[in-house]
Design a protein that fits this description.
heterotrimer, A alpha/beta (313), B alpha/beta (190), C alpha/beta (441), B: 190 residues, alpha/beta, Rossmann fold, 3-stranded antiparallel β-sheet, 4 helices, C: alpha/beta, TIM Barrel, 2 domains, 5-stranded parallel β-sheet, globular
Chain lengths: 313, 190, 441
């Protein structure tokens, strides 16, 4: 097995071997995640804390189910809008969790880098469930698992990511993971929604969605928040949908064996139309189930990286 | 499962002693096949589940032996018990192997197959893993070697060979499929 | 009558170009003799060994936050003065963003009096440009300029003066008293939510960027307005290559502008942010190698007049917050000169005399520094700095004189360290130890 995981914070911290290991474990977790097989006792007696300082019911539920399918005890600490969310006492909260005997913290926060800071302060593993615009590593891993259920390898795959890359932790994790797995990434976005110096990411950047669709194996559509138009990132939702959104007509430009993905929740009629979502090439619901399996694999890997002891047979 | 890459020496450099060779193993598996058939009153409802890693090829060999005796192909599967172990915190992280069971175990007789029976903890995990697949009528246990030192109230229904050991010795089963050679060796201090 | 002999040092005085080994004899706060044979006539004098050391005018910091009144949890005038003395400074200019804001003679007098009581460093008064740093109404500049403190430097430091009309009026009004206006060069609309330099690093780290354009747009505006008003403008903490070009161009065009750069902007790149350790969070943010090179060249050629620390103490708890919530600022007083010596002098960017100039005559050209900055001549006030250029030491945040410990240089080995600091003829730092008996007469 590859080097043990001590924390999972950013894709760039992972080796190819570690990613392959997580994805391989996740495949074995799938029957349990899908409830085709009973939950397993692997993490019985372990306490996983979901420390969610930013609202995300979907992600929290996914981590909750993942921990429970592995028989861990789960404590949920949701503190949206409290003093913890303002960052005044994240580290104090973490110290309290340690004192309470928590074995692993799943942290969701609007503060980029807070999981890095937390991991420096506590001895237990920290699993980043999304930090600001920075990273959302389990999302990228579940996306890779989904892609690999439909194709043998991502080596040479052409992945097109369209939408608000600037504000997207998913995009950052996705680009890093796709490049690690050998895919070619093209970003399509209004220039106002591209990160500065994005060329240094080793990706192709274009503003012409229609031109890249025929040469796309995976079309990954990012969520666009309506509030962005008020800060002059683009003129209107209507224009965004017309110029950058994916509808049935654009889906026709996509190759027959391509995949359509989205991290959810979808703003129907903005970045994706209902017609596009219903296309048979859409694997958006598979992503959700795969999320539980990937998170199970990550919890397993993080909590089994324990000190060496005599092995019994 | 501990095994050493070097064919002839333990990891502390003590010489390893070969207890059984390929012919011994082949005879043992034929005998175990007979015993399993006898215990079950034939091959009806049997499913063999090898406990990974080395239980899996042994289960396949047992199935082949049964086929040559009875002329019937009994279903063979593999069981990975990593997720059911109780020593997760005590060992290095282990990748999860594939669990591949070709039939529904409901109403069948599951024969668990492992190479070395020692503390009984792997078998305990395998019992849980089997139960997670469904509710078999009964579960039997076959092992190639029983070396004693049980930590749980578990015993095998069919044993290839009982080998008394001290706790600081190693017993290693090597198989052509996984190790390139068929033999059982004992030796060394751990 | 007290005599002090600074024996055997290499005098480096940028105001006269003096570079010679000589003793300096001090009596009653003034330099009374300089020469190779001064020691023989001063047998009863207190002797400070300066062999193999530089003897320079006491250093001047144009940009300091001492946090008193209002922020004494992180620093006060006593701890900040000790930090200054430890770094070789004899004069520092505490910024006006205290609580209450230094926008009245009463507050400024309080600060100045407290400084005299502590007696470890002279304070150069700074008042805010606008009342309460509010950006709307002007502070009473005329009254402050004519007060006992004789305020000649006005800055809303920490809060950019965004309203162009108010800035223009401030410059116009200030020109009547020939005082200096100093505005934080940052267009606030372009830095909404900004957390670090905008660029490749901020993109990877997912932190909102502070674009160089925000500095350059504001700086260009201020240079144009200062030119029109004929007023004196000082540019604090310049950070971008483009900003350097703007200042260079303005100086050629006759704008009455001076500029400073901080030690951290001369030495740290934005990639330092990658560990999200908020000790690296500062405003304006750490930039890139290209900017550092431009700043160094500008410091060498005089486009940038002075090194100023922007010494900004913050408590440990504040800096341990998640990056976006942590306050901006770094300590600087105790490491500035040693760092510039290590990186720029030994790095071949500045010669020793130019380095000394940027900490002494440079600041003295920006504002009235009241007897600090040289020259080292008979009859001049004995404000001196004795620096051992060969002493190696490792910055240890636990051993700083500051109450705070937010130095970005913790663990870095520096070459050269202040050995003695002399303020008005008395050692405030002696062999690296703060002189505890100092009280101002």
């Amino acid at each position: 097995m590859s080097a043990p995981l001590t924390d999972l914070i950013a894709i760039r911290d992972l080796s190819r071997e570690q990613v392959d290991g997580i994805l391989s474990d996740a495949r074995e977790m799938l029957p349990i995640a899908r409830r085709e097989r009973a939950s397993v006792p692997t993490l019985r007696g372990r306490i996983v804390c979901n420390l969610f300082l930013e609202d995300s019911t979907r992600t929290r539920l996914s981590f909750d189910l993942a921990a429970k399918r592995l028989s861990a005890d789960v404590v949920n600490f949701t503190a949206s809008g409290t003093s913890v969310n303002k960052g005044e006492s994240l580290l104090d909260t973490a110290q309290t969790l340690m004192a309470l005997g928590v074995d692993l913290v799943v942290l969701r926060t609007s503060s980029a880098g807070a999981p890095v800071q937390l991991a420096r302060e506590v001895e237990i593993p920290v699993l980043n469930a999304g930090d600001g615009w920075h990273q959302h590593p389990t999302q990228a891993l579940l996306d890779a698992l989904t892609m690999l259920q439909h194709r043998d390898t991502l080596e040479g795959a052409r992945v097109t990511i369209v939408g608000d890359v600037l504000h997207s932790r998913v995009a950052r994790s996705e680009v890093e993971l796709m490049r690690l797995l050998g895919a070619h990434v093209t970003l399509v976005a209004p220039p106002t929604l591209l990160p500065p110096d994005v060329s240094s990411w080793g990706v192709t950047v274009t503003s012409d969605i229609d031109a890249v669709l025929p040469d796309t194996d995976v079309l990954y559509v990012l969520r666009v928040q309506r509030e962005r138009m008020h800060r002059a990132f683009f003129p209107s939702i209507r224009e965004y949908a017309q110029v950058w959104g994916i509808d049935a007509a654009r889906m026709r430009r996509l190759p027959a064996d391509a995949l359509l993905m989205h991290p959810g929740p979808v703003n129907r009629g903005v970045e994706l139309t209902s017609g596009a979502m219903e296309d048979p090439r859409s694997v958006i619901t598979e992503q959700v189930t795969n999320g539980i399996a990937v998170r199970m694999a990550c919890l397993y890997r993080l909590l089994s990286a324990a000190p060496r002891t005599e092995v019994t047979s | 499962m501990l095994h050493v890459a070097d064919g002839g020496r333990s990891w502390h450099g003590r010489p390893m002693r070969r207890l059984l060779d390929a012919d011994d193993l082949a005879r043992m598996i034929r005998r175990l096949a007979h015993e399993v058939l006898e215990g079950n009153g034939g091959s009806d409802g049997l499913v063999l589940l090898g406990v990974r890693t080395r239980g899996a090829p042994i289960a396949r060999r047992l199935a082949a032996a049964i086929a040559s005796i009875e002329g019937v192909d009994v279903p063979v599967g593999e069981l990975d018990v990593t997720l059911y172990r109780d020593d997760l915190a005590l060992r290095d992280p282990m990748p999860i192997g594939a669990t591949d069971v070709p039939v529904d175990v409901e109403g069948r007789t599951v024969v668990l197959v492992d190479d070395v029976l020692y503390t009984g903890r792997t078998v305990r995990a395998a019992l849980d893993a089997t139960s997670a697949l469904g509710r078999p009528d009964r579960i039997r246990l076959v092992c190639l070697v029983d070396r004693g030192h049980r930590e749980l109230p578990i015993r095998a229904d069919h044993v290839g060979k009982n080998i008394p050991t001290s706790a600081d010795e190693q017993v290693i089963v090597r198989l052509t499929e996984t190790d390139g050679v068929d033999e059982v060796v004992i030796g060394g201090e751990r | 009558m007290s005599e002090l002999l600074i024996a055997g040092g290499r005098i480096l005085d940028a105001s006269t170009g003096t570079d010679t080994v000589a003793d300096v004899l001090v009596r009653d706060g003034l330099i009374v003799a300089i020469g190779p044979d001064v020691a023989s006539g001063a047998s009863g004098a207190d002797v400070l060994d300066a062999r193999d050391c530089w003897v320079t005018p006491g250093l001047i910091d144009l940009h300091t936050h001492l946090r008193e009144p209002g922020g004494e949890g992180a620093e006060d005038i006593a701890t900040g003065s000790a930090a200054a003395a430890a770094g070789g400074y004899t004069a520092v200019a505490p910024m006006a963003n205290t609580d209450p804001v230094a926008d009245t003679a009463v507050v400024i007098e309080l600060i100045m009096r407290r400084g005299r009581e502590v007696g470890l460093v002279d304070l150069l008064p700074v008042a805010s440009i606008t009342r309460g740093l509010g950006g709307a109404e002007l502070s009473p500049m005329g009254e402050l300029a004519r007060s006992e403190a004789r305020v000649d430097f006005f800055s809303d430091d920490g809060v950019p003066l965004g309203d162009s009309l108010v800035m223009r009026r401030a410059l116009q009004y200030a020109s009547a008293f020939d005082v200096v206006i100093c505005n934080h060069s940052e267009d606030p609309a372009l830095t909404a939510d900004a957390q670090m330099n905008e660029g490749a690093t901020s993109s990877v780290l997912g932190l909102p960027g502070w674009p160089r354009e925000a500095e350059e747009v504001m700086l260009a505006r201020d240079l144009i307005l200062a030119h029109g008003a004929g007023a004196r403008l000082h540019v604090p903490h310049l950070t971008t290559a483009g900003g350097v070009e703007l200042v260079r161009h303005a100086k050629r065009a006759g704008v009455r502008v001076t500029a400073e750069v901080t030690p951290h902007h001369l030495t740290l790149e934005d990639v330092e942010v990658a560990a999200y350790d908020a000790v690296m969070k500062v405003n304006p943010p750490l930039r890139t190698r290209r900017d550092i090179d431009a700043l160094r060249a500008a410091l060498a050629d005089g486009t940038i007049d002075a090194v100023a620390t922007d010494h900004a103490p913050h408590g440990r708890e504040a800096k341990r917050q998640p990056w976006e919530h942590a306050p901006c600022g770094m300590l600087g007083l105790e490491t500035a000169f040693a760092l510039v010596h290590t990186e720029l002098v030994l790095g071949g960017v500045l010669d020793a005399m130019t380095a000394v100039a940027r900490f002494t005559t440079g600041p003295a050209g920006v504002r009235n520094t009241r007897g600090h900055g040289g020259p080292i001549t008979v009859g001049a006030p004995a404000n001196l700095h004795v620096f051992d250029p060969s002493q190696r030491w490792t910055v240890d945040r636990a051993r700083l004189h500051s109450r705070a410990d937010n130095t970005p240089f913790h663990g870095r080995e520096l070459v050269g360290r202040t050995r003695h600091t002399i303020l008005h003829g008395r050692p405030t730092l002696r062999d690296g130890e703060i002189a505890s008996e100092v009280t101002h007469g």
